[in-house]
Amino acid sequence: RGYVVEDMECSHYMKNFHAPHVPLRMQSSKKLLSHINKTFGTLAFCRRWLEREDGGSQTINGDRGKQEKYMGALKNLCDVGIVQAYPPLCDAKGCYTAQYEHTIVMKPTCKEVVSRGDDY
């Protein structure tokens, strides 16, 4: 207990902000990277969003964003360093570890937590 390891199947990813320019040979990788750039940029995303009809954003994609058979392309993007995988963190085998964050605004005389709401 108290020692966290990356374990289990990965479902969360994020495009590397300083992604190297790598010539992609797989057409499916090019298509998925284009979708990631357009829909998420360098924000984190999960595979579940790629499988939705809107591909993760109704505003950007409408109902035409769903990614089909993308796992090979996603693995390729991770292998070449364009996308970073973020596997679940586990403390004890089979248990999950939660992480909570807040957004704060630093003012000259105080700090304000802007992400704290009724649902926290």
Strand composition percent: 15-25%
Shape: globular
- Kindly state the number of beta strands: 7
CATH-defined fold name = Arc Repressor Mutant, subunit A
Largest sheet: 3 strands, antiparallel
The CATH homology group name: Winged helix-like DNA-binding domain superfamily/Winged helix DNA-binding domain
CATH architectural label: Orthogonal Bundle
Structural class, judged by helices and strands?
alpha+beta
Name of the CATH class = Mainly Alpha
Order of helices and strands: EEHEHHHEEEE
Average the pLDDT over all residues and give the rounded result.
87
Straight-line N-to-C gap? 26 Å
List segments where confidence is low: pLDDT < 50 over at least 5 consecutive residues: none
**Strand numbers in spatial order across the main sheet:** 3-2-4
Number of domains: 1
How helix-rich are the residues, as a percent range? 25-40%
What is the rounded Rg? 17 Å
Descriptive account of the structure:
This protein has 120 residues and is α+β, with helices and mostly antiparallel strands. It has one domain (5-113): Winged helix-like DNA-binding domain superfamily/Winged helix DNA-binding domain (Arc Repressor Mutant, subunit A, Orthogonal Bundle), CATH 1.10.10.10. It is built from four helices and seven strands. The protein has helices at residues 27-39, 47-51, 58-61, 71-79, and strands at residues 5-6, 12-15, 45-46, 83-86, 89-90, 104-106, 111-113. Strands 3-2-4 form a three-stranded antiparallel β-sheet. A hairpin with a 4-residue loop joins strand 6 and strand 7 (111-113). Helix 1 (27-39) packs across helix 4 (71-79). The longest helix is centred in the N-terminal third of the chain and has 13 residues, at 27-39. The radius of gyration is 17 Å and the shape is globular. The mean pLDDT is 87. GO terms for molecular function: aminopeptidase activity; metalloexopeptidase activity. This is Methionine aminopeptidase. InterPro entries: Creatinase/aminopeptidase-like (IPR036005), Met_Aminopeptidase_Type2 (IPR050247), WH-like_DNA-bd_sf (IPR036388), WH_DNA-bd_sf (IPR036390).
